[in-house]
């Protein structure tokens, strides 16, 4: 799933390559992806792209006051091309959901919004104010702007596990499954720690890790072409998606806890005092 660093990199790419161009045509291959119907996508036609930004994990393309806001969800992606096909895509064919021509079709660049797999979560809104998007209206402060004091206030009284709190977009915006694993590993904290009961020294480590992990990931990602961002993300991960491989800090094997549709990874030596966490899925299989 694209998280804060990748979405920031995509916004940077659009600022570099899309701003100043005109939307000539928008092709909608999947009506399911559109979550708003007024204004229509055709109202983007003829508008100049005046900006590109990010709200948590939402990408925002400003077309002279009309915003195309995108949430890439788990398997969505933005694919840039210097020359897009002239013929409109056939509805419901393949992963393509929406295509934006930033030049005369067949003569200019643009991008596709695509989504792999059968479980669809990619979403797009066309709004005059990004705050009209429900997910943006509910966002907590951006993860890169949170101070140490603010983080303590946000976590105060929270009873859920730290892993759950870090990925709650209403609490802190921008952190997902992968970078929460990396942040907790860097901070040497258990994913099962109670979010509102961290002592001061642990909060110091958590805030330092939140800033350093995301800042480093943004630095690695910004300037990369959209096609290279996924590989860049994988190359920088130390525990996430590395089950069974040695921890780069201590050499212990990275372990995994699995749920119905996702999993997280951690290092027992670095994070849980050497004790493996219970994997509920495995426990059910052994009964």
From TrEMBL:
GO terms for biological process: base-excision repair. Residues 238-272 form the FPG-type domain. It comes from the Bacteria. Keywords: DNA damage, DNA repair, DNA-binding, Glycosidase, Hydrolase, Lyase, Metal-binding, Multifunctional enzyme, Zinc, Zinc-finger. Its cofactor is Zn(2+). It comes from Saccharothrix violaceirubra. Its EC number is 3.2.2.23, 4.2.99.18. The keyword Chaperone does not apply. Pfam families: Fapy_DNA_glyco, H2TH, zf-FPG_IleRS. Gene3D superfamilies: 1.10.8.50, MutM-like, N-terminal. PANTHER family: FORMAMIDOPYRIMIDINE-DNA GLYCOSYLASE. This is Formamidopyrimidine-DNA glycosylase.
């Amino acid at each position: 799933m694209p998280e804060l660093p990748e979405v920031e990199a995509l916004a940077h790419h659009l600022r570099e390559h899309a701003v100043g161009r005109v939307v000539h045509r928008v092709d909608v291959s999947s009506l399911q992806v559109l979550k708003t119907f007024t204004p229509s996508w055709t109202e983007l036609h003829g508008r100049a792209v005046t900006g590109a930004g990010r709200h948590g994990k939402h990408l925002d393309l400003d077309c002279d006051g009309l915003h195309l806001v995108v949430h890439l969800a788990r398997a969505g992606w933005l694919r840039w091309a210097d020359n897009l096909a002239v013929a409109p895509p056939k509805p419901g064919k393949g992963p393509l959901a929406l295509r934006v021509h930033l030049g005369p079709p067949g003569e200019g660049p643009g991008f596709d919004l695509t989504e792999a797999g059968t479980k669809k979560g990619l979403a797009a809104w066309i709004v005059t104010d990004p705050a009209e998007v429900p997910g943006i209206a509910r966002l907590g402060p951006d993860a890169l702007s949170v101070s140490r004091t603010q983080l303590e206030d946000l976590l105060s009284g929270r009873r859920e596990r730290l892993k759950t709190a870090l990925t709650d977009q209403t609490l802190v915006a921008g952190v997902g499954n992968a970078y929460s694993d990396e942040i907790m590993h860097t901070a040497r904290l258990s994913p099962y720690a109670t979010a509102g009961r961290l002592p001061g020294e642990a909060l110091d480590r958590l805030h330092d890790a939140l800033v350093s992990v995301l800042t480093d990931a943004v630095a690695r990602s910004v300037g990369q072409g959209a096609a290279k961002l996924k590989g860049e993300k994988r190359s920088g991960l130390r525990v996430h998606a590395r089950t069974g491989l040695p921890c780069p800090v201590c050499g212990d094997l990275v372990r995994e806890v699995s749920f119905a549709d996702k999993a997280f990874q951690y290092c027992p030596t670095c994070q849980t005092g050497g004790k493996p966490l219970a994997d509920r899925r495995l426990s059910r299989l052994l009964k």
